[in-house]
Design brief:
233 residues; alpha+beta; Fusion Protein Consisting Of Minor Coat Protein, Glycine Rich Linker, Tola, And A His Tag, Chain: A, Domain 2; 5-stranded mixed β-sheet; 4 helices; protein transport
């Protein structure tokens, strides 16, 4: 009976010890949880404090960096080539001039006071008339001249293919000798008709020149040449 009581007392004391150890471990664990939680909240508070409104943020100007210094140019020393100095060669040259100079030669004196200046002759520019007393005309007559044009003008192939027709106005000058010159197309129809009209007029014989006050003069003329396209039946 005494042994059983001692065992119960021993177990009771051990139970109290284990309970105390368990309580101590539990308290330590709880204290540790409180400390970890307060540290985490403190960290969150610190982060929340940094999150300020956008309009209160300070703009930090960018740092200007100085440009790097330019690389140093290394000057290359030029290669100096020594050129030997040529020795001067002295030669004795005998110059033999055989000129007779006499003091009796007359020197022409120019009298600038009585000098007469002559003006160059101006070239007489022949006037070109458009209206004259006697009009120029073909020596063969105007009807024969028109027949000459009709027989010698060749309708250009390009104009035939495009069925181009119309009047070509050619300006030319009948010179005082009757020759025709200075051909110019004032109004054309193209497709080779302008060039063909000028070609035939250049091949024409000289005309009888126009006259003003009985004197042959240059006269400017304009001649229309009509190109008509007709299909053959």
């Amino acid at each position: 009976m005494a042994i059983k009581k001692s065992k119960d007392a021993k177990m009771k004391s051990q139970r109290i010890l284990f309970f105390s150890i368990g309580l101590l471990v539990s308290m330590s664990f709880v204290v540790g949880l409180f400390e970890w939680k307060s540290y985490d909240e403190g960290d969150q508070l610190a982060v929340a404090h940094v999150d300020a409104p956008v309009d209160e943020l300070l703009e930090i100007p960018p740092t200007e960096q100085a440009p790097p210094p330019p690389p140093k140019q290394v000057l290359q020393q030029p290669n100096i080539v020594e050129v030997p100095v040529e020795e001067e060669i002295e030669e004795d040259i005998d110059l033999d001039f055989d000129i007779d100079i006499t003091t009796e030669e007359a020197i022409e004196q120019i009298d600038y006071d009585n000098m007469q200046l002559t003006q160059p002759e101006e070239e007489e520019v022949e006037e070109i008339f458009t209206i004259v007393e006697t009009r120029p005309e073909p020596k063969m007559g105007m009807n024969e001249f028109m027949k000459f044009l009709y027989e010698n003008i060749k309708y250009p192939k390009g104009a035939l293919a495009a069925q181009v027709q119309g009047k070509v106005f050619v300006q030319f000058i009948v010179n005082s000798d009757g020759a025709l010159s200075d051909f110019e197309v004032l109004k054309g129809i193209g497709k080779g008709c302008d060039e063909e009209a000028v070609r035939v007029l250049k091949s024409a014989a000289p005309w009888s020149p126009g006259k003003q006050r009985g004197k042959p003069v240059k006269v400017k003329m304009v001649l229309p040449i009509n190109f008509v396209y007709k299909e053959r039946n």
